[in-house]
Amino acid sequence: MLSIDRPFRQATPDDAQDLAEFVNMAGEGLALYLWEQMATAGESAWDVGCSRAKRDSGAFSYRNAILRLVDDDAVACLIGYPLEDAPAPADYSEMPPMFVPLQQLEDMVPGTWYINVLATKQAHRGHGYGNELLALAEGIATSLGKHGLSLIVADTNLGARRLYSHLGYQEVAQRAMVKERWVHPGTHWVLMTKSLQIENKQPEAGAG
Known about the structure:
Blueprint: E1 8-10, H1 16-26, H2 30-38, H3 45-53, E2 65-70, E3 73-82, H4 100-106, E4 113-120, H5 129-143, E5 148-154, H6 158-166, E6 170-176, E7 188-195
Parallel strand pairs: 4-5
Antiparallel strand pairs: 1-2, 2-3, 3-4, 5-7, 6-7
Helix pairs in contact: 1-3, 2-3
C-alpha cells in the first residue's frame, strides 16, 4: 500500500463531521437526503452521517478516507477502495431503489479501485487539490495491482466530467437515476473508468 504523507493524511473518527460534509458535497445533497430518512427521534441527518463516518467498516468509513490538508485543516477529501475481482452477484431486489442504478454501474467494473468521493471545500477550489487526490488514487490503485480506476458522476456535473476526461477517464455506461423526493437536475448516473498499466515484475537473474 502506498504511504500517505503530508499534505495528505489518513482520516480518523475525529474527522467525522468533515467527512460527512465531503460526502454530501460529492453527492450533491443525496447523502443528506438519505440520512434524513434514516434519522430517529432526536437525531439529525448530520448525526447519522457522522455516526456512519466513524464506523470501522463500510464504504463510507473513515478507514477509506484520505484528507488533503492546508496547514492542519482538511480542505479536500478522497474516499475510495478496491472492488473485488469476482464479487458475488448483487440481489437488486433487496436494496433501496435509489441504490440500484449505482450498484448496477459499480458491478460493471470489478477489480478496479473505486473512487466513491472526491470533494473540495468551496473556499479552496481552483488550487488543484482534486487533481492531487486523483493522482494519489492512481498511485494507491497501482500499488495494489488494480487494473484500473472507476467512479460514478451525475450527468449534469459537466465540470467533473471534463476533469475526469482530461485525466484519461472514459465514459462507459449510464443508468437512469431513481430520485424519489431527492431534488436534483440530473437524469442519469455516468460510469467512468481509467485503465492502468500494471508492471510485471521481472524474474530474478538465474531464476528458473
